[in-house]
Amino acid sequence: MDDTTLIAVASIITAGLTTSFGCMGPAFAEGRSVATALTSLAQQPDASATITRTLFVGLAMIESTAIYCFVVSMILIFANPFWNHFITQTVAK
Amino acid sequence: MDDTTLIAVASIITAGLTTSFGCMGPAFAEGRSVATALTSLAQQPDASATITRTLFVGLAMIESTAIYCFVVSMILIFANPFWNHFITQTVAK
Amino acid sequence: MDDTTLIAVASIITAGLTTSFGCMGPAFAEGRSVATALTSLAQQPDASATITRTLFVGLAMIESTAIYCFVVSMILIFANPFWNHFITQTVAK
Amino acid sequence: MDDTTLIAVASIITAGLTTSFGCMGPAFAEGRSVATALTSLAQQPDASATITRTLFVGLAMIESTAIYCFVVSMILIFANPFWNHFITQTVAK
Amino acid sequence: MDDTTLIAVASIITAGLTTSFGCMGPAFAEGRSVATALTSLAQQPDASATITRTLFVGLAMIESTAIYCFVVSMILIFANPFWNHFITQTVAK
Amino acid sequence: MDDTTLIAVASIITAGLTTSFGCMGPAFAEGRSVATALTSLAQQPDASATITRTLFVGLAMIESTAIYCFVVSMILIFANPFWNHFITQTVAK
Amino acid sequence: MDDTTLIAVASIITAGLTTSFGCMGPAFAEGRSVATALTSLAQQPDASATITRTLFVGLAMIESTAIYCFVVSMILIFANPFWNHFITQTVAK
Amino acid sequence: MDDTTLIAVASIITAGLTTSFGCMGPAFAEGRSVATALTSLAQQPDASATITRTLFVGLAMIESTAIYCFVVSMILIFANPFWNHFITQTVAK
Amino acid sequence: MDDTTLIAVASIITAGLTTSFGCMGPAFAEGRSVATALTSLAQQPDASATITRTLFVGLAMIESTAIYCFVVSMILIFANPFWNHFITQTVAK
Amino acid sequence: MDDTTLIAVASIITAGLTTSFGCMGPAFAEGRSVATALTSLAQQPDASATITRTLFVGLAMIESTAIYCFVVSMILIFANPFWNHFITQTVAK
Amino acid sequence: MDDTTLIAVASIITAGLTTSFGCMGPAFAEGRSVATALTSLAQQPDASATITRTLFVGLAMIESTAIYCFVVSMILIFANPFWNHFITQTVAK
Amino acid sequence: MDDTTLIAVASIITAGLTTSFGCMGPAFAEGRSVATALTSLAQQPDASATITRTLFVGLAMIESTAIYCFVVSMILIFANPFWNHFITQTVAK
Amino acid sequence: MDDTTLIAVASIITAGLTTSFGCMGPAFAEGRSVATALTSLAQQPDASATITRTLFVGLAMIESTAIYCFVVSMILIFANPFWNHFITQTVAK
Amino acid sequence: MDDTTLIAVASIITAGLTTSFGCMGPAFAEGRSVATALTSLAQQPDASATITRTLFVGLAMIESTAIYCFVVSMILIFANPFWNHFITQTVAK
Questions:
Q1: Between the CA atoms of M81, M83, M85 and M91, what dihedral angle is there, to the nearest 10 degrees?
Q2: What number is the average pLDDT over the span I75-86?
Q3: Testing the interface with D: which of C17, C19, C28 to mutate, by most D Cβ within 10 A?
Q4: In this complex, does chain N touch chain D, defined as having at least 3 beta-carbon pairs under 8 Å apart?
Q5: For residue G13, is it within any domain?
Q6: Which of D90, E71, E86, G34 has its CA 20 to 30 A from that of E46?
Q7: Residue F65: which residues within 8 A CB-CB, separation 6 or more?
Q8: What distance lies between CA H4 and its chain's CA centroid?
Q9: Cα dihedral sign, B4-B10-B12-B15
């Protein structure tokens, strides 16, 4: 098992786990926010403008943490500095 | 066990786990949202338009995190840059 | 243990786990949705049309995450690109 | 330990775990649905027709995820493409 | 440790675990259903006919997931295709 | 460590774990059912006939899952087909 | 480490774990039943006859699952067929 | 590491774990029962005779599961048939 | 690593874990009982005699399970039959 | 496996896990805050100014802990002092 | 790694874990008792004498389980019979 | 694998885990505090000054525990005394 | 790896884990006590003297279990009898 | 891998884990205390002086357990007696 293989395997596994575990939290959080928004709407239909606006701002911030994980995952697959180092090194040989 | 095998095994396992674990969170979250939507509808039938609209926007955002996981999983199976690297390298030899 | 065996073993285990773990979340979520739908129906029988419609849309979206897992699982068993690669490679030898 | 043994062992273990873990979620979910149906019936006996109809549709959808797991399990035991490949390969030798 | 031993060990362990883990979920679910049925009966004795009928249909569906696990377990012990393959192979030698 | 030993060890451990883990779920479920039966009796003493009858039917169905585990456990100890195979094989030598 | 030792070690560990884990569930369940019986008695002292009778029947059924585990444990220590097989085999040599 | 040592080590570890894990369940259950008894006494001081009698019967049955574990533990330390077998065997040599 | 060392190490570790894990359950249970006793006293100061008496009987029974663990732990440290066997055996040599 | 490979693998895996696990907590916390903000808005629409202001300050502080994790992750990928040390050392040779 | 080292390492690790895990339970239990005492005092200030007396008796009994763990820990560090045995044995040589 | 590599790997992994796990607790705690602050504001808008002041002091103290973890993490990456020791030692050679 | 190193490593790891795990329980317990004290103060401001006095006594007893862990930790770092034994032994050589 | 390396690695990992795990408990506890303080303030604004004073005393005591962990962590990094021993020993050689 040479070095580039090991880097590749580590990148693949980490990319998958980062996205899957990192999406759990935001998914739960968004589910909770949406659920509460719905109960709030049912309870106070007049405040629907404020509620939906606050909901979307909140969803955007929660989604941002999911985006962080997806970004790290994409960096590891498509712009991995360690992988590039080894590939250029191999080419250089 | 040569290198391509290892990459393949890691990709298979990671693809499966990413989808299965990554779908848990969104599934729970959607279940929660739908459940609350139903109680809200039962509680305030007049606000059904606002509720279902907010519900569908929320479901779309939650589904997006499940899509991230599915996308990573599909990339690992069908467009894996590490696998392609090794395959082209093997062909080149 | 040659390479094709390893790919096969990894595919079998991953296919099984992906389906079994990936079905837990949707099952719980659907159970929750159905349960709430029933309490809502008991609470507000007049809104049964809206409730059942929202329920079925929600169940469809939750079922979609279970379908993702089942699809990944079927791909790994019947249309596995890594397996096909090794099989054709073996034949080619 | 030759290759067919390994495939067989992996198939046996995965088939068992897929069914046992995959049935947990649906079992819980059905238990929850049935339990809520009963409380709803006790609360609103007049809506029993709608409630039992919704319950059976819901149970069918939840049972479907258990069926997915059972199907994967049966495929792994009785129609395993990897096992068939190795058996025919062994015969061919 | 020859091959048949390994198959036998894997079958024994998987058969046991499949039944024991697979019975947990249905047991909980049935307990929950029965418990709710009893509270419903205490709350609305007049609806006892509908309640017990719904309960028994529900218990039957939940029991079905336990039966799946028991069936897989029995198949692995008494009608295991992998075991039969190796036994006939050994006899054939 | 010869083959019969391994089969014996696997059977012993699996038999024990199957019973102990498989009895947890039913025990909890029965405890829950009995507990709810008692609260129901305290709440509605007049319905004691229906309640105790439903309770005993429910307990019987829950107990059945415990029986499945005990049966598998006893099969593994006293009527283990794999063990019999190896014993007769050893005698035959 | 010869074969009888291994059987003995496996029997000892399994016997202990079977009893200890298998007693957790029934203990919890009995605690729950007794606790509910007490609240029921405090709530409805007039129904004490029915309550205590139902409690004892319930406790007997829950205790039965603990007995299963204890029986398996005792079988493994004092009437272990695998151990007897090896002992008689050793004596026969 | 000869055989008697292994038996001794397994017996020591199992004896300890059996008692410690096996006492958790009963301890929780007794705590729950005593706690409910106290709330019941505070709620209905007149029924103190029935409550304390039911409490002690319940505690006795819960304690019985703790006793099972302690008995298995003591058997493993002081009346271990496997240990006795090896000791007499060693003496016989 | 000779035999007495192994026995000593196993005894040390088991003694520690038995006490630490075995004390968790009783500690929780006593905390629960004391907590409920206090709420009961605040709720019904007139029944303080019955409450404290029941509390102390209950605490004594819960403490008994902690004592079991402590006793096993002390036996393993100071009156370990396996250790004594090996020590006398070593002296005898 | 030479040294730089090991550093690279450790950096990849740690970077992924740091982001994915580190984003769970903040995601949950933000979900909780947004959810409570929505219920508060529904309950007291007049205080919407204070509520949204407090919400955004709170979200900013919670997001800061997610940022810490993302920063550590980025440092490990793009500005890793250990990696730089080894790279410059390799160049120097 | 000679024998005394192993005994020392096992004693150090066990002593630490015994105290740290063994203190969790009592800490939780005391926290619960103190918390309930405070709510009881706020609810019934007149019964403060009985409440604080019962609290201190309860805390003493809970603290006793923490003391057991601390005692076992101290025995393992400062009065370890196994360690003393090996030290005297080494000196005797 | 020489010594500096090992120190580097341990530092990288520990730095990542310290930040990611150490940020979970504070994130949850801040989420809880902010959530309660919002409900308090909705409940008692007049006390908004005291509430927000107490909130910010509380958030500062909770954030301090996150800072501890971040500081330890940064020390391990940029001011690691063990790493410096080995680097200077290597230079000295 | 000589003996003193092993003792040192075990002491370092155990000291750290003892403090970190051992502080969790008391921290939770103190948080609970303080939280209840605050609700009690808000509910019954007149009893503030009794409440704060009971709170401080309770906090002192809970803190004592944290102190036990810290003491064991400090003993393992600065007054470790096993370490001293090996150091003096090494010096004596 | 020589001895000083091992000590360094153990110190690094333990220091990180001690701080990260040890800060979880206090963070949760402080979050709980602050949250209750806020609800208390909203409920009883007049008692704000007593509440904030009690809150700060409580936070100080909870923070103390976090400080213990941080102190142990800093001792392990900057004043580690085991590390110093090995360093001086190496210098002495």
A1: -140
A2: 89
A3: C19
A4: no
A5: yes
A6: G34
A7: E23, E26, E27, E30, E63, E66, F22, F25, F26
A8: 26
A9: negative
Strands (E), J26-80: none
Residues of E in contact with F80 (CB under 8 A): 12
Measured CA to CA, the distance from residue K83 to residue I15 in angstroms comes to 14
How many angstroms separate the CA atoms of N22 and I71, rounded?
32
Distances in Å between the Cα of F39 and the Cα atoms of H56, I67, K41 are 20, 34, 31
Q: Write the CB contacts of F85 (distance below 8 Å, at least 6 apart in sequence).
A: E4, E8, E87
Task: Work out the average pLDDT over E56-68.
Answer: 91
Q: Would you say residue G31 has pLDDT above 60?
A: yes
Residues of B in contact with C44 (CB under 8 A): 41-43, 45
- Could you please report the per-residue DSSP string of C25-51? HHHHHHHHHHHHHHHHHHH-GGGHHHH
| CA pair distance E4, L45, nearest whole angstrom | 75
| CATH code, domain with D65 | 1.20.20.10
pLDDT at residue number C88: 85
Q: Residue type at K75?
A: I
The CA distance from F90 to F4, in Å, is 9
Tens digits of per-residue pLDDT, C36-84? 999 998 888 888 888 888 999 999 999 999 999 999 999 999 989 988 8
Q: Are K30 and K66 in contact (CB under 8 A)?
A: no
- Do the beta carbons of residue L46 and residue N42 sit within 8 Å? no
> To 10 degrees, the CA torsion angle through B23, B29, B31, B34?
-130
F70 Cβ contact list (under 8 Å, min separation 6)? F19, F22, F23, G68, G72
Phi/psi-derived region of residue N12, left when phi > 0, alpha when psi is between -120 and 50, beta in every other case: alpha
Contacts of M15 in chain N (CB under 8 A): 14, 72, 76
Q: Are D7 and D83 in contact (CB under 8 A)?
A: yes
Q: What is the pLDDT of residue H72?
A: 92
Q: Is residue G57 part of a domain?
A: yes
Provide the number of structural domains found in chain A.
1
Name residues 45-84 of chain A within 8 A of J (Cβ): 46-47, 50-51, 54-55, 57-59, 61-62, 64-66, 68-69, 72-73, 75-76, 80-82
| Residue of I7, I33, I41 lying closest to H34 (CB–CB) | I33
Shortest CB distance from H15 goes to which of G8, G16, G87?
Answer: G16
Among K72, K9, G12, H82, smallest CA distance to I75 is for K72
Expressed as residue numbers, the domain containing H55 is 3-92
Q: What DSSP assignment string belongs to G46-90?
A: GGHHHHHHHHHHHHHHHHHHHHHHHHHHHHHHHS-HHHHHHHHHH
**Neighbouring C-alpha atoms within 13 Å toward the C-beta of G31:** 25
Q: Which other chains touch chain D, taking contact as 3+ CB pairs less than 8 Å apart? A: C, E
Question: Given the structure tokens 């003297």, which residue do they identify?
Answer: M49
Give chain I as a DSSP string: --HHHHHHHHHHHHHHHHHHHHHHHHHHHHHHHHHHHHHHHHH-GGGHHHHHHHHHHHHHHHHHHHHHHHHHHHHHHHS-HHHHHHHHHHHH-
pLDDT classification of K93: cutoffs 50, 70, 90: low
Rounded-to-integer distance, Cα E49 and Cα E51, Å: 5
Q: Where are the alpha helices (DSSP H) in F1-93?
A: 3-43, 48-78, 81-92
**Reduced DSSP (H G I as helix, E B as strand, rest coil) percent helix, strand, coil of chain C, to 5:** 95, 0, 5
Q: Number of residue pairs across E and F with CB atoms under 8 Å?
A: 167
The Cα–Cα gap between D84 and D61 comes to 32
